[in-house]
Amino acid sequence: TCTSTSSLSDGASSKHRLSSHAGSNHNDELTSEIPDELSVDPLEKLGVSVHYLKTFLLEEVLLTPGLSRDSTIYDCEKLEGPPGVIRQKGEDVLCPIDGQLGAAYVHCLGGKDEVGDANFMLSYSWGYSIGDIIDSLDYHCATQNLDPKRTYVWMCCLCVNQHRRSGMLTDNVKNFEDQFLGRMMGIGHVLAMMAPWTSPLYLSRVWCLYELYAASGHDCTIKVITPPTQKKDFEAALVRQNGKGINTLYETIRETRVEKADASVEADRQRILEIVEQKPGFVAFNHYINDTCREWLGDLIEETVRIRADGTKNRGTSIPFADFCNRVGMIFSENGDYTRALKMFRNSRTIMEKKDHHQTVMPWIVTNEKLLGKDHPKTAISYRDIGLALHKGGYVDDALIMYRKALAIQKAALGEHADTAVTHKMIGTLLKEKGDLEGALTEFNNSKDINKSIFGTVHLSTASSYNNIASVLQMKGDIDGAIMYLRGVANIFEKKLGKNHPDTALIYKKIGVILMNMRDFGGALVEHHKALKIYEAKYGGQHAEVASSHSAIGVVLANKGDFKEALVELDVALAIQKSVLGKKHATTQETVHSITNVREAQRDLR
Fold first, then answer.
1. Do residues 307 and 12 lie in contact, with contact meaning Cβ atoms separated by under 8 Å?
2. How far is CA 100 from the centre of its chain?
3. Which residues contact 330 (CB under 8 A, 6 or more apart)?
4. Angle CA(196)–CA(198)–CA(200) in degrees, nearest 5?
């Protein structure tokens, strides 16, 4: 298929999607080679009115034997078989673009109530049902006060000539990209449709992901829409099922990778992957998609909370609503959105305080305290979760209180336990941020002792404790101690992960940086070359980590005074970074600055 964009909520436009400028930094390199004005035949930008879709098109579908509102676009038009609902419309009509028999569906319509210049491009999947698509578009018109007769939507199934589908796309990747971007920029507004909410088909389609990424950097506004029934199901899951399924959706978003996405036409998929691999690269692309979808989901959850508040008898001021905010806050906290979590916890606390509730001090702990008691390990986890939300929100002292409450319960109920070790580590991390290095070291050592007791000396949890201790020792100026613990981490990683694992390489890099700062340039070069060898074997030559290692080697050589070899390494790093990250990326600019400094130092010696 050509397009897909989906989502759960008309009102859930994320910060990234409100306009092209809001999220344009992620793909400046993508836009830099695209002309400001891409010429597209006006006939290729015509859209079908929402009014026509929900009346005449739906009627055509319902009158076709075997089809219903639940039929997908694939069901309505099987391209490998005889003409279906879509191709039948234009099979005896001359195409106004090429003059040949067989026209696109949109070119068979007439009158302003049916067809006009598209003001929206729909990003969707052919696996969506015709009923859900129409309901989503109709709901969008209703909630945005748009006239369905003057709201024209460009949909690939209706607006691309399916009689020519096999020959519509050029083999030239650049022309292919320009054709798509020209149409999208000409329309200027993208509606992304995501359904079903439990496992959005949108996230598995390569066209959908590409459109979501491309639109944000090309003067296009993006709005996420969803079938009204899906929106109600989502609200029910959040309100009545304690968020059942939402954590799974967060996990689905985290695991979304464009390399794994499908397309109906394999040639389309290969072209898109080639474009993405060239710029911005799979890592940067997937990071943007993950962040954008998480933002959308967070917006959707908050919108559902607002709807719930407006729909309750006391308009969001009741004790049950406070408990609901608490549960939503826990969902946010569990999925790393601590700013939103803190907002929900504060809503809960505000309501409790106004009601003079007897548990206003810790309203977010109410549920577990009631069900399990104040000294239960799960109550401790609740304290720790809210502590993490407070910590991430910048409320360090309040967070420390929560962490210590959790630790006290865990020591009494669990003793030397993995959860107790984790809480020690979290307290240590907070104290390190506060500058209390002695306190942090004590907590990290407590965590280490528990991990060694439970898991032994060769375990990843023990390695994590070593790594934390090393970071504090380095800050205290105990460099020999820091290196000793980092070598302990490297030893565990080599045994548990393997000598060629990227995490092992990262420890080598850390040791290399410390050694360079100690002016042990020979030792530093050994460690950085070990890391580089691992990264090249794992990722190949064109990868950000490979560039990082070349840059680190260049910096060591420059400090050693070997400017000529330093420039060789830095130039290699810069070439990779320009290709993978783009010319304007901060890391690329840092390398440019390093090269400038080395050249100046080289000139000063002459």
1. no
2. 44
3. 341, 364, 382, 385
4. 50
